[in-house]
Amino acid sequence: MRILERSIYVGPSQYAHFPVIRLELDLQALEAWPTGKLGETFVDGLVAALPGLAEHGCSYREPGGFIRRMREGEGTWLGHVLEHVAIELQNVAGEDVTFGKTRSVGDDRPGVYTVVYEYAQKEEGIAAGELAIKLLCSLLPAELQPEKSVADDWDWDTARDDFIRYAQRRALGPSTASLVRAAEERGIPWLRLNQQSLIQLGHGKYQQRIQATVTGKTPHISVELASDKEETNKILGTLGLPVPRQELVNDASGALRAARKLGGTVVTKPYNGNHGRGITINISGEDEIREGFAAAREHSRSVIVETFIGGDDHRLLVVNGELIAATKRTPGHVVGDGKSDIAELVDVVNSDPRRGVGHEKVLTRLELDAQADLMLERVGYNHFSVPKEGEVVYLRSTANLSTGGTATDVTDIIHPDNRDMAVRAVRAIGLDVGGVDFISPNIAESYKSIGGGICEINAAPGFRMHVAPSEGTPRDAAGPVIDMLFPPGTPTRVPIAAITGTNGKTTTARMLAHITKMAGYTPGLTTTDGVYIDGQRTVEGDMTGPVSARMVLSDPQIDMAVLETARGGLLRSGMGVPEVDVGAVLNVASDHLGLKGIDTLEQLADDFAVIPIEEV
Questions:
Q1: Are residues 189 and 492 in contact, defined by beta-carbon separation less than 8 angstroms?
Q2: Which of 548, 538, 539, 583 is nearest to 568 (CA)?
């Protein structure tokens, strides 16, 4: 079983109106071994490895249909199984993809199949196909396994978790993904501009950009202020907002002096850290303070020592001068049952189907690492200690979801004084989107009467805790951001015309671009001799594929796009945009037959038809 050819379609193609991967797969000797012949052991092993396959409907159009298809009669062939496994692997990694289809190439090439499946991220989709082949080969009887297809020490659980981490490093983070979904719900097009979280919303001159939850309208000086915890503390304190007293230090002896000056218990944290890294709370002894300083120093040259404020950790999200959501965050912990040790209790917590690797799911798995060991040591426990029934044992000092914490929505009960305080604090720093870390014994009571304090103001606050809390009502954190960038009625798209056909594309595309320029528009044009912006060639060469379409739509000058779309690009990568306003096929002639299996005029017409039949 080997892949003969692979094509990545970034836009509408003859296979689907969304991104798909096409494999030309040769089953070789395995053509004689459908799943029915491979037997129950193969099917059972596959379902054990990927239980989610039980939900695939396949030809029966109901959950369990695919498993039924594999078991009944002669079963189904491994190309079809590969399609479903590649889809399910992406689902396991947190993507929502469902489409696939597998067809035999023809009687003249027995055992060769076209396998098509949807993908969310290109690299992830490719890796899913490759891992799917390894999984299938590992489940085959030894005598049928292709030579060197799976290493002797290959382990499925390790390979699956490695794939999830690989996929998450390339996938949009939960905050960025929520913003993209909110844009899609409003019909706003988007482009990913790098391999991280830089996103363009809208086309041409109507575009806005976001990077995670920092927007193109977020003042740079405000981001810098939010990163400077000492300066933020001073600004907020000057306005009479509740903040802890703090000192900035550069060595352990300075930390000890600062702790004595502040009195009581203190917190040590990096001067400019994030995600709760390097923070140690509620410490007072000299050894604890030295250890806290060392932990913070790993993330920053300078360390802040501040007074410890007791209470629950809350994140208050403010967008465009309005509090959108309030969440109580609880550090990762286990609850004793009087019988199980700490390690066993962690396994119980991690068995929650909502917990996964990294940002794969709503919650993140707990880990018994060095930080957990430190927390256990403080209470005299280790991995094999058995807490009494009902005892809460914390494995983290901070409540970040990325380290196993939980989140409870408290938006409906927050006191108006606390709401106003959060809005004032974010405005004081100047952020359009900001998160306030607020410690309070009871968020439903005013800080003016029961105390509390602002620990930090966060630029680029995470949305995962708000859109998918562990408990309570999910909040639409992303929608208000998109509405701030694109108020109702604001244009987001430029008109797009796509021209294809066998002959005459370049002349027609140039003529249309010239007409739009004479009408007062600023056109972006792609042709076989280059990219033109407002009549000036900016890039030379054959620019008739998806790359040049992105180039034009990313240009902040244009308010009209004219795309010459060549047949080769359609066959290799699909159309460069999800939809067009005008699609034209000029003619269908036999000049360019013989590429990628297109041998007749009817096949060529079907390929060209991708453009005019695309829904708008």
A1: yes
A2: 548
Amino acid at 495: P
SS3 497: strand
* Confidence (pLDDT) at 150: 82
SS (H, E, C) 375-437: HHHHCCCCCCCCCCCCCEEECCCCCCHHHCCEEEECHHHCCHHHHHHHHHHHHHHCCCEEEEE
Structure tokens at 470: 């562990």
- Here the tokens at position 380 are 């005299």
Q: What DSSP string runs through 587-601?
A: ---GGG-SBTTB-SH
- Beginning with the edge strand found earlier in the chain, give each strand of the sheet holding 100-104 in spatial order: 2-9, 20-26, 112-118, 100-104
d(CA 256, CA 258): 5
- Cα gap 464→174, rounded to integer Å: 6
Rounded CA-CA distance 269/15 in Å is 53
The Cα-based distances of 205 to 180, 187, 555 in angstroms read 19, 17, 7
Residues 6 or more apart whose Cβ sits within 8 Å of residue 269: 229, 278, 279, 280, 296, 303, 304, 306
Phi/psi at 83 (nearest 5 deg)?
-55, -50
Give SS3 for 322.
strand
Secondary structure (3-state) at 484: helix
Cα separation values, 39 from 65, 143, 240, 400, Å? 17, 14, 73, 46
- pTM of the entire structure? 0.83
Which tens digit of pLDDT belongs to each residue from 78-117? Answer: 999 999 999 999 999 989 999 999 999 888 889 999 999 9
Residue matched to tokens 């036999």:
590
**Model confidence over 268-301: pLDDT tens digits?**
988 876 666 788 888 888 888 998 999 899 888 8
**Count of residues making up the chain:** 616
Burial 52-90 (b: 16+ CB within 10 A, else e): ebeebebeeeeeebbbebbeeeebbbbbbbbbbbbbbbb
Euclidean distance between CA atoms 408 and 474, whole angstroms: 9
Q: Which two tokens stand for residue 283?
A: 């410490």
Is residue 311 within 8 A of residue 441, CB to CB? The reply is yes
Supply the DSSP string of 509-531, one letter for each residue: HHHHHHHHHHTT--EEEEETTEE
Token pair of 344 as six digits: 């066993």
Q: What is the DSSP letter of 341?
A: -
Q: What are phi and psi of 322, to 5 degrees?
A: -140, 135
Query: Residue 296: how many CA atoms within 13 Å on its side-chain side?
Result: 29
SS3 275: coil
In whole angstroms, give the CA distance from residue 43 to residue 142.
15
Q: Measure the CA–CA gap between 293 and 290, rounded to whole angstroms.
A: 5
State the average pLDDT for the chain: 90
454-487: per-residue pLDDT in tens?
999 999 999 989 998 989 999 999 999 999 999 9
Tell me the pairing of strands 433-440 and 453-459: antiparallel
**For 286, phi and psi rounded to 5 degrees?**
-60, -45
